[in-house]
Amino acid sequence: MHPALLGLVTIVLGVGGCLAYFYFSNVVLDRFIFPAKGENAGRNINRANMVRPWLFLFPAIAALGLYLGYPVVETLRLSLTDRFAGGAFVGLDNYWQMFGEPKFREAMRNNMLWLIVVPAASTAFGLLAAQLTDRIAWGNIAKSLIFMPMAISFVGASVIFKLIYDARPAESAQIGVLNAVWMQFEGGFGSLLLLKILPAIIVLGFAGIVAYTGWIFIRPLVKGSRTGGALVVVGRVFVALVAAWLVWEAVTTIATVLTTELDYGEPQQWLTLTFYNNFFLMVVLIWIQTGFAMVILSAALRGIPEETIEAAIVDGASPFEIFFQIKVPQIMPTIVVVWTTITLVVLKVFDIVYAMTNGQWETQVLANYMFDKLFRANDWGVGSASAIIIMLLVSPILVWNVYTARKEMR
Amino acid sequence: MDNIAGHKPALTWAVHISVLILVLAWLFPTVGLFVSSFRTADQISSSGWWAALFPTEQNEVYRAADPDDNRVADGDVFVVSGNVFEEAGASEKTISVWGTSSREISAYEAGETADLGDGETLTLGEGGAYEWRGNDDQISGRGQRIFATVTAPPEFTLDNYENVLLSGNATDGMTKAFFNTLTVTIPATIIPIVIAAFAAYALAWMEFPGRALLIATVVALLVVPLQLALIPLLKLHLGIGIGKGYLGTWLAHTGFGLPLAIYLLRNYMVGLPRDLIENARVDGATEFQIFTRLILPLSFPALASFAIFQFLWTWNDLLVAKVFLIDATGETTVMTNQIVELLGTRGGNWEILATAAFVSIAVPLIVFFAMQRYLVRGLLAGSVK
Questions:
Q1: Across the interface, do B380 and A296 touch by the CB < 8 Å criterion?
Q2: Which Pfam family, just one, is annotated for this protein (chain B) (predicted)?
Q3: SS3 for A320?
Q4: For A78, which residue in chain B has the nearest alpha carbon?
Q5: What's the ipTM?
Q6: Class level of CATH domain A89-174+269-410
Q7: B163-382 maps to CATH 3.90.920.20
Q8: In chain B, which among 187-226 make CB contacts under 8 A with chain A?
């Protein structure tokens, strides 16, 4: 049968089947099992109403259980077995084998980089775009254009950015924008300013923001004021330590940026430059996710009560003070939501890496590593183990989401 | 706010310019792909797409007409004249410099006469007209070669689209993949909506023990990575005989889309006025009637939001299709997979890649611009607050 016809039949059967199920199960319940007449009419109506929710829920629960619930358990089991030994139970062997692989450690390191850079950059750009477009006449058009990459597939975006990163031999015309710009630098003062000083200042600014955030977290402990429970103290110290580590990384990065000899006049294969190519891949996801962050944050900015801003203006606050000290603190919960949502996307990022480098040149990430193990090495044990690692990384967000959702419902 | 104290015109201008820069930066990559898809392979490889809007310079090789057929006697010399562009089939080009050997392709200006030795001469004008003079011996054999630097006006072509969509070429063609994608997408969008709507209604408006727990489970399942489901489900599909194919893909998309669908629809339905539903109950409507006659029509915005999400997600998906759909024969390939394969086999052929990618991007973009309002509403409702 022709697939399109099959699709049509499936729609009719699927939708019709669902509707028929819901209709007839209700009829059967009301007419035959617990008929609303005779001597037990009242009790029957109550009983029917107790059963009915489960009739409505049954297809959904069945599908969710089979397609999401069961796989979680089954993947956990598979990660403890060895496919090549006929599915024998091997304990944590798959995990140990995986931890020993350089490719896995590379994937973990890159994923951590992605987890820091992509949500931070997307949220920052989204916030910037939301704030800037908020009060100008053509703001909606601007928003719609920045939002547009959301509709583009990761694969399509990969093609778009591969064209940007394209490299041709030095003597012919460059057709990739990045190399065309790169060839304009020849090592003079302009190159020094744009490629050494400017990046160093940007990284320094990042380090400054991180250090300030860390200080905000650790300040109550240093000043010895009210600190809350032991868990809070541990949390604060942890955040401060992460911040300190990031600052250290930033400082070493600045040193590298200032001392590296750049290869002027030579077209670069951007995607094969180890370490930096990760950032060229991240740009794709940042490009896509900024629109998402902008839309949500823009709605949050509009929700800020006007009085607080008016009061700040009356008190003589500058536009920057208004933004950072009045607006940002008020939309902090939304920023957290945006951040975690993008974090989830990052953890599952597969298409971009698969289409652009397929994990070569040290760009491996977990999701692509897993795909590699499952469908190229055919190693279901290690593949499942890496899937479980992704699940573990997701689970803090899962717990937090359930916690906030329940709090909201009460 | 603009008329309140603290308003500075300079700042307003800075905002306008920053937004413009931001928008252009975000638009630039897509425009590059779009423009490239209308250029020929030669144009793409000779200049960047940003140059496509301006005239381009190319080095071309032409050959004068065959002397044996075209030469005419002029006294004791023979002359071959014509226009290089008429033979090449283009007319709006202009020649800046030219030469007669591949080592000196810019030896002469347009309009100059080249001395080829022993009285043999060649004149080439800016518009491509040439005149080749010499004695009987010189004007014979094959036509004289002419190397010219040509400035061509911007030129766009639909050939790439014709090649990718209509040629029926199995490796480059996107037609089959386009319809396969469509076949995957439509059932995978509609079926979860039906299932989720009923469940969402039960979770929003029916009282039963365990409701809170079920809602929490749905929220939890929202973030479960579908990577976890690949192997167990593939084994399941192979085990029960579905194998790799459309049915398994539809089921998988349905399962993966359900948590978001239930979550979105439930959040929306909870916000519907309680009186409405209770009045209907008092009037003797059954739950099924309330749902189909009252709730479904009222929930249209939420249904549309989810439909767009699911459509974009299934249309743009690569992983699920690779695992559950595409078998060794490659008959059921979808567009995303086709593009990835083109990246491997046709890595340098940007005219094919750009066109193929744009074909796959076009439909989501249309949906996006047509139904942006619902997408935004869904996003705002969908992120756990």
A1: yes
A2: BPD_transp_1
A3: helix
A4: B232
A5: 0.81
A6: mainly alpha
A7: no
A8: 187, 190-191, 194-196, 198-199, 201-203, 206-208, 211-212, 214-226
